[in-house]
């Protein structure tokens, strides 16, 4: 009886693992951005975006990254009773720190200096995304936020891969200048495993609501599109 029970438990865990993986994959597919929703990345891919636009991208990211890092950290603190989500969110926060270290070389390659940074006026359409991430940090169930953020990062990683290639091909940027985008474009198996574990634990505990997480993910994708649209428009 003990052996049979053990097998049943193992089978149940396998089923839950599959459900978590399927939920992530289904949400990523369902919320994949419309190719027409991003007017800027195709311009960068063709080498048609100006250096000024690239500089604005660097300056906006310099504001987004520390805001997102604090938001992820706050979500992790709120997930005291959800260690799997907390671990995933801490990985995300740590990733923002690593990304920030790589952003400086990109900004310098775009001609950004201290005076330009001080004078820059952020675009509301670009800062709507971190504002919503901050909302999630205050209001969302951490497991729901993990699912929504995982879906969004899938699209963001694809954009970064395209940009990294274009910066080398059309703009002559060095590896150091492209490292920010290389970082997000690279596979992150540890993060993927932790996100799946967080989704699985959320489902098992009844904390994760797929419909609610889908709503968060839909808004994140919309704000992501707004970010690129704002950058593509004249300042």
Structural description of this entry:
- The model is unreliable at 1-12 (pLDDT under 50).
- The chain has ten helices and no strands.
- The longest helix has 30 residues, at 142-171.
- Helix 7 packs antiparallel against helix 8 (175-185) and helix 7 runs parallel beside helix 10.
- It has helices at 2-30, 41-45, 51-78, 83-109, 114-119, 124-139, 142-171, 175-185, 189-205, 210-232.
- It has 235 residues and is an all-alpha fold.
Summarize the structure.
The chain is mainly α.
Q: How many angstroms does the end-to-end distance come to?
A: 70 Å
- Portion in strands: under 5%
**Could you report the average pLDDT, rounded to the nearest whole number?**
92
Model regions low in confidence, pLDDT < 50 over at least 5 residues: 1-12
Largest sheet: none
Rg calculated over all Cα atoms: 19 Å
């Amino acid at each position: 009886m003990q052996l049979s029970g053990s097998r049943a438990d193992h089978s149940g865990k396998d089923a839950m693992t599959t459900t978590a993986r399927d939920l992530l994959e289904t949400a990523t597919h369902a919320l994949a951005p419309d190719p027409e929703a991003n007017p800027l990345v195709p311009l960068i891919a063709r080498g048609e975006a100006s250096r000024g636009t690239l500089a604005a991208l660097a300056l906006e990211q310099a504001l987004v990254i520390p805001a997102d890092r604090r938001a992820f950290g706050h979500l992790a603190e709120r997930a005291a009773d959800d260690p799997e989500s907390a671990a995933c969110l801490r990985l995300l926060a740590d990733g923002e720190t690593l990304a920030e270290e790589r952003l400086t070389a990109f900004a310098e390659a775009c001609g950004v200096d201290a005076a330009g940074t001080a004078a820059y006026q952020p675009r509301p359409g670009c800062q709507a995304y971190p504002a919503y991430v901050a909302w999630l940090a205050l209001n969302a169930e951490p497991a729901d936020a993990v699912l929504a953020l995982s879906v969004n990062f899938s699209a963001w990683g694809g954009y970064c891969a395209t940009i990294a290639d274009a910066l080398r091909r059309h703009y002559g940027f060095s590896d150091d200048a492209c490292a920010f985008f290389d970082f997000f474009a690279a596979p992150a198996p540890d993060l993927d495993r932790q996100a799946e574990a967080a989704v699985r634990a959320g489902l098992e505990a009844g904390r994760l609501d797929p419909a609610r997480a889908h709503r968060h993910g839909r808004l994140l994708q919309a704000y992501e599109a707004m970010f690129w649209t704002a950058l593509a428009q004249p300042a």
